[in-house]
Amino acid sequence: MSESLPQGAKPFDFTGNAKEWFGIWIVNLLLSIVTIGIYSAWAKVRAKKYFYNHTYVEGRNFDYHATGKQILIGRLIVIAAVIVFQVVASVLPILGLLLLIGLLFVFPWLIVRSMIFNARMSSFSNVRFGFVGSVGQAFLTFIIYPILTALTLYTTFPILDRAMKRFSINNHKLGQAQFKMEVGLGPFYKAFLVAIVWIVVVGLLGAVLSGFSFTEFAMAMDNPNAPPSEVMKVVGLFYLLFFVAFLPAAFIYQALTRNAVYNNTTLEGGHQFASNVTAGRLLWLAVSNMVVVICTLFLMLPWAQVRMARYLAAHTGFIPGGSMDDFVTQQQEAGGALGDAYTDLEGIDVGLPI
User: Fold this and answer.
1) Residue 60: beta bridge partners?
2) Rounded CA Rg of the chain
3) What keywords is this UniProt entry annotated with (predicted)?
4) What does pLDDT average to over the chain?
5) Which of 165, 167, 245, 324 is the most buried (most CB within 10 A)?
6) pLDDT in tens, 334-354
7) pLDDT of residue 2
């Protein structure tokens, strides 16, 4: 895989540093604990604002405009709905079942509202993002596709993954300029098969070299009289094989699909994106970050977050199709004062990893 971005690509630049972010992070953590989680809404805003403000492209940075109050109101709405559902389900089970079925239709609406909120609260060089996806599209993508994927024993997971990414990217706008992802299923299935091959080969090789047996594992777990040392040995081997086989596979898939998505995504006006992350580097960062964070009782988490953000930014590029000044000016004029109308949106956020 290429170690450099394509010619003409302007790399993203993350300018945050661990010391500065630690100061914000520790205050967020302490105030969230003292307020029994209430301040976490404001903590989320401060965190997003820090990482957005310190991410630049061509000397222009991103920004986040939501308030803690908006996030808190959104969370209270969701919590209230969950409480009402639990009460109704315990008092009137049949009605609770009907409400559960109804949630299948409410969930897509929540996804769309979440994406609209997060898009409108984000901006690049004072140009707001937007989201125009429909509830019908969300229902197909997040309800129908997952059911079909489960019925096919997840052999069609790449189809689901691509559908989710297309729903997110193709319905986003920057000002009035539309994003467009045009990538076939080939790269997704290639990444999926490479990850599966890694799991099978490493799993079998590890089982042979370590003498691990699923039969012994099942017997040790089901036998209450098994010596603790034997149980720990078998369980330890299982988790070691799981770590060595599945964790790298996840990063292989993530790296290959990320590159395919970014390298085939455009922004109206002739602008393109690029990515050249590698599975090996992503895995190294994730594992070393995890070891350092655990050994320092999570005090080095800000350092790990900044380290990962810096790597991803440096390996993500923007290929302008013309003058950035002209593009930004055009979108600012097209957007007008729409940003002022976003203050009454509720901060519903389902936290989708797409």
Assistant:
1) 57
2) 23
3) Membrane, Transmembrane, Transmembrane helix
4) 88
5) 167
6) 764 444 444 445 556 655 544
7) 45
Q: For a pLDDT cut of 90, what percent of the chain falls above it?
A: 64
Provide the pairing of β-strand 10-11 with 13-14. Answer: unpaired
Could you read off the pLDDT of 80-137 as tens digits, one per residue? Answer: 888 888 888 888 888 878 888 888 888 999 999 999 999 999 999 999 999 999 999 9
Residues paired with residue 10 on neighbouring β-strands, in sequence order: 318
CA quadruple 163, 167, 168, 172: dihedral, nearest 10: 150
Confidence (pLDDT) at 223? 66
| Residue indicated by tokens 């509202």 | 113
Could you give phi then psi for residue 268, rounded to 5 degrees? -45, 130
> Cα separation of 220 and 225, whole Å?
9
Q: Describe the strand order of the beta sheet including 177-181 as a list of residue ranges.
A: 10-11, 316-319, 271-275, 265-267, 177-181, 172-174, 127-131, 122-124, 60-64, 55-57, 13-14
Higher local confidence (pLDDT), 203 or 20: 20
| Whether pTM exceeds 0.90 | no
Closest C-alpha among 278, 291, 271 to residue 124 = 271
Largest Cα–Cα distance of the chain, in whole Å? 74
Mean pLDDT of 202-207: 82
Contact yes or no for 22/303 (Cβ under 8 A): yes
pLDDT of res. 215: 67
Sign of the dihedral through C-alpha 309, 314, 318, 324: positive
Inter-residue contact 54 to 16 (CB < 8 Å): yes
- Residue 7 has a pLDDT of 84
Token duo for residue 52:
């957005």
